[in-house]
Amino acid sequence: MRTLHFSLLPLLAAIVISGPGTARAELRIDADYPGGNILVESIDGDVVALRQDLRDTEGWWFYWSFRAYGAEGKTLTFRFTNRNVLGTRGPAVSLDAGRTWSWLGAENVENTSFSYTFLADVPCVQFAFAPSYQESDLRRFLKQHEANEHLVVDELCRTRKGRSVERLHVGRVDGNPAHRILLTCRHHSCESTASFVLEGMLAAVLADTDDGKWFRENVEVLAVPLVDKDGVEQGDQGKNRRPRDHNRDYDGSSLYRSVAALRSFVPQWSDGRLSVAIDLHCPYIRGNHNEAIYLVGNRDPKIWNEQCALSKILESVCRGSLPYKAADNLPFGQSWNTENNYRAGKSCSRWAGELKGMRLATSFEIPYANVGETTVTPDLARSFGTRLVEALRRYLDQPPP
Prior knowledge:
Blueprint: E1 3-9, E2 12-18, E3 25-30, E4 39-44, E5 47-51, E6 65-69, E7 75-80, E8 92-94, E9 102-103, E10 109-110, E11 113-117, E12 124-128, H1 135-144, E13 151-158, E14 164-171, E15 179-185, H2 193-206, H3 210-218, E16 219-224, H4 229-234, H5 257-270, E17 274-281, E18 294-295, H6 301-317, H7 339-343, H8 348-353, E19 360-365, E20 370-371, E21 374-375, H9 378-397
Parallel strand pairs: 5-7, 15-16, 15-17, 17-19
Antiparallel strand pairs: 1-2, 2-3, 3-6, 4-5, 6-12, 7-11, 8-9, 8-12, 10-11, 13-14, 14-16, 18-19, 20-21
Helix pairs in contact: 2-9, 6-9
């Protein structure tokens, strides 16, 4: 006789199969780690039904991340019940608790399900919509460069949950640069791919290259890598958060401490030398405008002209990384980039474009899984960040119109 013991709790599910003459086996699925997000509905044999946790999201979004224990040597099917939340390369998979990632591939996906055969010697496997980037990843990067005098790590603020929001100063940090650049990321906490691009940009400024040397002589970069730190660590969607999206919090009095602190600090720090502001994002799950890197066109024609100037340079230097074409940019008035979007609330790039002396303020959209036929990986995303720094150097070397 075989007995089945089954328990199901929010964010944690376990199945235990035992009986006379059988080895005790346990399958446990949870999201109890930084960035984790899942709700398990049922486990029936080798099929797990589950869905993303939308929490305080207005409407539908597609971020999820979970880990599975105790499935060594088995093949399981994971079936999502709240629409298709699997991207064009299937799920991302990590065998080392989220430090490195690979794509499972679309060949292992059928409709809203994916199947995975667990290795016999790996007790825990982590799955996610896309490779994650958490505070721990940022800490590893900063540890690698902690002896570099051109990197200053400070605190922008503390979140409501008591987490520190990092404020990084990179490049010429002696207080007398020719240019200042603002870089922000993770206004939407789920948009992890953008973080690898930002890390690549910071590494390029610190690198022993001609571009790195030029930046360290001429440019101070202010970077806020994890604007919605609580959301990143809690595994929130972040996009369309109620009562207000972080990237619509630049009107009136800001609800979120990180946005309020950014709005207070940047105008004082800029001292009239803030030339460029770039806010890094990821787009929708798939489809038109979501499988290409693009700039979101500003409503102001002068800023749009500067966006086009940078785009032309970036396309010319974008080699050995994710591909970029200026023709993929989204001008104001097309698709979702309309007056209706502006009326939804002021974004970071729109706010930055109004700052004194600003030449170019823009947001970039970096796809999660593929840019055209090219598969997105953390290393290729970092390489795109390197190319973006090269393009910015050439852009800033040109006199403003």
